[in-house]
Amino acid sequence: MQDAATEADLLTDGExxxxxxxxxxxxxxxxxxxxxxxxxxxVLLIVATYIYFERLFAIKxxxxxxxxxxxxxxxxxxxGKIDSAQMLCVQQNSPVSRLIGKGITRIGKPLEDINTAIxxxxxxxxxxxxxxxxxxxxxxxxxxxxxxxxxVIGMILSIFEIANSGGSIDxxxxxxxxYTAMTTTVGGLIVGIIAYVAYNHLVVKTDKVVYxxxxxxxxFLDHLNEPT
Length: 228
Fold this sequence. Notes:
By secondary structure, this protein is mainly alpha-helical.
């Protein structure tokens, strides 16, 4: 009976020693320096998330083009209804329609001038589509570096405590420095990976809209170049 009681006590003691660590505890255990860097990374994550969804919806809206749009434009132009073609472009209000509308305003001038006007308008449209996307690329590179900065700070704090321990190391203080080193590294990598994936996804989406603009512009120019 005594052996059984002793074994039960040991199990109870073992259970009491076991400790779980939540995400909040992990962040707060990193000390002031760790919490400041984690807070900065959290702000970067919010900025990256906002830019991603704002641009995603904008690009998705820009890619919407009526399947019959170019056929209507060609019909209006062929019949000399330039005003009707311009009105149709205004109603569509998309990057493609704005490019075609710019070309329609140049009808009557040499084809090279029309092409130049469309290309210049296309550059402005692409610039609008890529608005703030470069910030995602910056965050994807800066976030891991900020995390590594926290790693360096944490290691410096740990080494400082070891150097000034006088032969008796305070494990609690040493652990705080190591927490700072590890949590900021993980946080920086997570934010960097999310921003990197978001950036590349937006680039692919933007390229599809650019291709759409180029295809419709060529179709319009080919129609103008057809013999009457």
